[in-house]
């Protein structure tokens, strides 16, 4: 992902893109495999579907680049700057979870969940831009304004 920030200022939508990239990078990392007991016997065919190999093997994209992993590590630290519910909503949206499932898990309505998501994006962007810290923003009564629609 190209760094297309104008005059080095972070916006909420750029923070959202970066969190989505981190989720994608984490998904693309190689799986940790546990060593199990091995057998020298070959796998045997149990039915005709195994013989024909009718089920296609799932395709995975290649492993992420080292720079993407570094950006992922940096981005995951950002989630510590916001409250736990905000971080859960941010990560759920980045991994593609639907709003209905997020609202059910978090226990809040759709509008409040969306406002919480936007507030978290704005808080992270402001902290990245050297503004006031995220904990100070939680105490603020000002509603964040953003061009994203629910």
Q: What topology does this entry show?
A:
Elements: H1 12-28, H2 48-52, H3 66-78, H4 84-94, H5 99-106, H6 110-128, H7 134-139
Description:
- The chain has helices at residues 12-28, 48-52, 66-78, 84-94, 99-106, 110-128, 134-139.
- It is mainly α and 150 residues long.
- The radius of gyration is 21 Å and the shape is elongated.
- It starts with 11 loop residues before the first helix and ends in an 11-residue tail after the last helix.
Short description:
This protein has 150 residues and is mainly α. It is built from seven helices and no strands. The two termini are 25 Å apart.
Tell me the span between the first and last alpha carbons: 25 Å
Averaging pLDDT over every residue, what do you get? 81
Sketch the topology as an H/E string, one letter per element: HHHHHHH
Beta-strand percent range: under 5%
Global geometry: elongated
Query: What's the Cα radius of gyration?
Result: 21 Å
The largest sheet, given as strand count, sense and whether it forms a barrel, is:
none
- Assign the structural class, choosing from mainly alpha, mainly beta, alpha/beta, alpha+beta, or little secondary structure: mainly alpha
Helix content: 40-55%
Poorly predicted sequence stretches spanning 5 or more consecutive residues: 136-150
Number of DSSP strand runs: 0
Number of helices: 7
Q: Notable features of this structure?
A:
150 residues, mainly alpha, 7 helices
